[in-house]
Amino acid sequence: MHQEGPSAATADARASESSQAGVYSMGAVVRMLGIPAATLRTWEERYAIVLPQRSTGGHRLYSRDQIAQLSFVRDQVDLGASPGDAFRLLDARMSDYARRNPDRDVSVLIILAERDVHAAEFSEYFLRTEGYDCLVALDAQTVMESLAERTPSLVVVDLLISGGAGLDLCREVKRRAPTPVLAISALSSQDDALDSGADAFLQRPYEPIRFISTVKDLLGASAYLRRGTAAS
Amino acid sequence: MSSGSARVDQVLGGGLIANGINLVIGSPGCGKTILCEQYVFHNAAVERPALYLSTVSEPLDKMLRYGESLDYFDTSAIGSRVIYEDLGRHLNDGGLPAVLERVTTLLRERRPGIVVIDSFKALRDYADDVADFRRFLYELAGRLTVLAVTSFWVGEYERDAVDGPEFAVADAILALTVERTAERETRVMQVLKFRGSNFLSGKHAYRISSKGVEAFPRLADELDATAYESSSVRISSGVAPLDAMLSDGYIQGASTLVAGPSGSGKTLLGLHFLMNGARLDEPGLIATLQENPIQLERILNGYGWSLGEPGIGVMYRTPVDLYLDEWMYNLLDEIERTGAKRVVIDSLGDLRASGIEELRFRECIYSLLQRCVRKGVSVMMTQEVPELFGTTRLSEYGISHLSDNVVLLQFILDDSRLKRAISVIKTRGSAHDSHLRQFDITGEGFVLGEAFIPSPTA
Question: What pTM value is reported for the model?
Fold first, then answer.
């Protein structure tokens, strides 16, 4: 079954809608991306490309897509580009993608095959704050159904899902498509996971930053950069 | 995970296991909050901050104000790597579900490495019944377990009342208590549970100072079967005729008990031993609970000696409010710091007065002597015997049995004259002269006379 709440079966449509809805305060963006508030305000005024919505009280509210956009700019600046060049590149990719995919969901989809409801809840939150779209499945059967309907960019598999069906799930994901698989377990099952086709393994508990970094490594780049690359 | 205090870590077998749930229990004022704050400030980092969540037992401002007076408290860390939050409002407004929701939000947004909930016991009162509290614990532990978070649940639980569900959930339980003997109080910590880890069992004294909680792990060394270099070198007692009685002095690294009634010259015999060593480039240390350094200097001056001479160190501690293990660690630290090769402990009676039980006292002395012999440090201990004449018992604590050598000083009434006599009762591993010899104390110190032959009228 799909998890109820923010990640219920109906989440696909809502995720698409909410990826452009303003939900994150400036403080949250500062914490998530490590970009100072003053820099965010300067970029907004100077380049006018990432423009957050405003709450009724006048507070800035950034959408998930905008988090991904700012994350892309930050990465470009970290790689040595000037903020101006980074925003020009962002603008070009946004225009190009919008032209090629006028009606399509632009999110990178990650399927979270999780046994533990709390772990699923946290992982979904951490991934969504990074701009990824998530589909949570709490048993192996639901994962299989989701794979039949959607093509994810990554599958996160708790090896103990459905009484230990995680290794089979890793093999099944890989049999269908060359989708990256991140295996997770409270046990030290690294070798078994890799033998079953997983591309990476994390032992629980892990730090959120490690989880996110591993996801990014497996996807090859930040969510937005990946989308841009795919689009071009 | 280190507490920032090496000896607290030692009690815990090297430190707490990261990402576990730890219950810190104890009566009010025993230092639970201080210990948790030590962990917080020692381990928190900006990218993995520590959350200190107060509930309804102590106002947050008060907690912060007292914390600020402690050395580890880094004001600049507040708001960046250490975040204090008040859960009390959420608890009062929405009960345990609101606490759960708030903690979840903080775990998501702050991504902490440490979470402290103080007081955790106060949360119990907000549950409808035991089952309700169990549900809350299950939900909370579930959230804390899937993330890399080390949790501290702090509560004013009694050490004997550890049957609550939180005690089953916790990976480690550390109890801080105050034990009372007559009018004396001793702070004691004990690990009651520690899943998957070794720790030092039993009770360990600790103190609270501006540095935070400082522990003194129970000095009770197990038999160390590893080899060490055993010395056969003889060192002088500082009194040549006594050396002759001992078959050319003491063996280096040996322990010697000097027993005798008050005023018989025990401290002076110890000073002879130290001064002789200092002049042979063997640093010495007198650990005294009897005379303070000024009194000691006056005594030394009477024999032409001084504390200012190179190679002589003094560790003076008052016997008032003494923690034996703390004193032992102080002594071991001082031996290490000064490189002392000869140590005089004056006196065992004062140490015994720390209120510790006899078996524990013997364990402690045994451990000290074992550590010293392995370092080639010779130890002399003085022990007052109660009888002024005709000693019938050397030591009430079985220390003579642990000592390599025993020297007895006595008063003897001879023809209505009070005389002093010295005899060697025991020398482990060598022969000795068993005669009782008369001695006087002069400006030169000990002056030994002939073997004591009582007058016929005595």
Answer: 0.73
